[in-house]
Backbone:
């Protein structure tokens, strides 16, 4: 910490760097298409864990993110009751649209914090 930097500024910088790493991990999780139930579950669990450890609680962003995460969760819940790991084409399209929305939200936060 420099002589001109307050303790609060230093703490905020640390939290921002920490959150930036979490957002980058989120982006890594959704970069590849999701085509199997197993991968869908992994992405859902990873995104939830990463969301839950964020230091900054931007409620508007969290609400939007959780909405899209919930779409993936509902699709998984539907297919987990079936005896197949194969996801239907209509749901694959919905997963891809949702994945795109999550990517856009996460990229927005990365741009905001990566200054």
Residues:
């Amino acid at each position: 910490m420099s002589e001109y930097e307050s303790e609060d500024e230093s703490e905020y910088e640390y939290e921002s760097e920490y959150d930036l790493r979490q957002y980058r991990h989120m982006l890594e999780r959704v970069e590849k298409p999701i085509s199997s139930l197993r991968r869908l579950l992994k992405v859902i669990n990873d995104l939830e864990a990463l969301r839950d450890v964020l230091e900054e609680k931007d409620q508007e962003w969290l609400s939007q993110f959780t909405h899209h995460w919930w779409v993936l969760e509902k699709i998984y819940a539907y297919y987990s009751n079936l005896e197949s790991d194969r996801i239907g084409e209509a749901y694959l399209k919905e997963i891809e649209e949702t994945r795109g929305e999550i990517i856009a939200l996460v990229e927005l936060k990365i741009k905001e914090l990566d200054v």
Remarks:
- Residues 89-113 form the longest helix (25 residues).
- The radius of gyration is 17 Å.
- The helical segments are 7-30, 37-52, 59-80, 89-113.
- The chain has a mean pLDDT of 89.
